[in-house]
Amino acid sequence: MDARFTDEQEEIRRTLRDLLDKRCGPQELRAAVDTPAGHDRALWTALAGHLGLPGLALPETCGGVGGTVTEMALACEETGRALAPTPLLATAVLAAPLLLALGTGAQRAGLLPRIASGGLTAALAVPGPALATALALTGHDRRGQWAGGGRAGGVQARRAEGGWRVYGQVDQVLDGYSAELLVVAAHTGGFARSRVLLFLVRGDAAGLTRVRQTALDATRPQGRIQLRDVPAELLGDEAADVLSALARLGGTAAACLAAEAVGAAGRVLERTVEYVGQREQFGRPVGSFQAVKHRLADAYVQVQAARSAAYYAAWAAAAPAPGAETAGSLALAQALEALRRAAAEGIQLHGGIGFTWEHEAHLYFKRAAGDELLFGPVHRLRAHAADAAHVFEEAGT
């Protein structure tokens, strides 16, 4: 394994950081999350048109750049550093890989070039608070019970004249309020022969109702979608192994989320170090006190260790290497802990202003807490990785 980044990868990082520093400062961030879409459409157009960000990990035959998970993780590290509210996670990390893996030739040709150009945003809708389970990050449900189990609740799909119809409700969909295409996981076949399939639902489909939800982390807009006998298109064919595809996606998503959290942790730690070097108490900078140095040093070591884990998880997912699934879960757990630690230290060491709504420190803490609610918690990420690696099994059993 060569741990060095290529010149192209370094250029991605540098160019994206320069753009976000100019276009996604604290004021622009707050203005973006207050818009109906929850993100700055002009910024998204710039990220797509100038940098090709949504197509970074899509093949060139689909209009993408032809990169790997590593390039996408580096991009996520920079967007996480700025807490940039963009459709990148929902569209490029969660939805696009499923379209690429399971879609028919016509579906890939019709949708992926539009996603790569930034002209189409998408979101993955998984019933219930089960996104982490569906992605096999905190457990592996081989029957897809998280989607409703064929019983009442969740989302159900049935054949109808001319196609499929879906009905049900999904309460937590990342970018679900603004996405122009929804990839909906639904049960079909009734109770006896129930199975999970994925369906494509247009954002303007008849019978679809969407409501923007108030989320703990305002930089990750969420929506509740209600499907009342909505026309839908089956993604791929009925023989598709949707549960395995979602589990494979979990390793990729975890690596990108870990890189995103590491970027945020590194940024809030940088700002804290800068502030304690300026703030004075008893006639000397706060950062010169040994206790403060120790706390920041511990946080720095934790962030750097999490960064190494995130990079390895991205490399393992791109290879793909043995243990990529567990590498992603472990990296995500470590990164979320590092972000929570760095944000908490930032709030406290900024003193009185660190606890105010006007300061940005609380946004980083909420990103850590919000991601743990959506993709964790940390102890379950680690427990599932341990189970997958058979860590606690006795020899010979």
Give an overview of the whole structure.
- The protein is an alpha+beta fold.
- Helices cover 50% and strands 15% of the residues.
- The chain is built from twelve helices and nine strands.
- It has helices at residues 7-23, 26-33, 41-51, 69-81, 88-102, 105-116, 131-134, 242-278, 290-318, 324-349, 361-375, 378-388; strands spanning 122-125, 155-160, 163-174, 181-188, 195-202, 208-213, 222-234, 280-281, 284-285.
- Strands 1, 2, 3, 4, 5, 6 and 7 form a seven-stranded mixed sheet that branches. The chain has a two-stranded antiparallel sheet with strand order 8-9.
- β6 (208-213) and β7 (222-234) form a beta hairpin.
- α4 (69-81) runs antiparallel to α9 (290-318), α9 runs antiparallel to α10 and α10 runs antiparallel to α11 (361-375).
- The longest helix has 37 residues, at 242-278.
Order of helices and strands: HHHHHHEHEEEEEEHEEHHHH
Distance between the termini: 33 Å
Please give the largest β-sheet. 7 strands, mixed
State the shape.
globular
Structural class: alpha+beta
Which range does the strand content fall in? 15-25%
Helix fraction by DSSP (H/I, runs of at least 4): 40-55%
- Oligomerization category of the chains in this entry: single chain
Radius of gyration: 21 Å
Q: Return residue spans where pLDDT drops below 50 for at least 5 consecutive residues.
A: none
Number of E-state strands = 9
Discrete helix count: 12
Mean pLDDT: 90
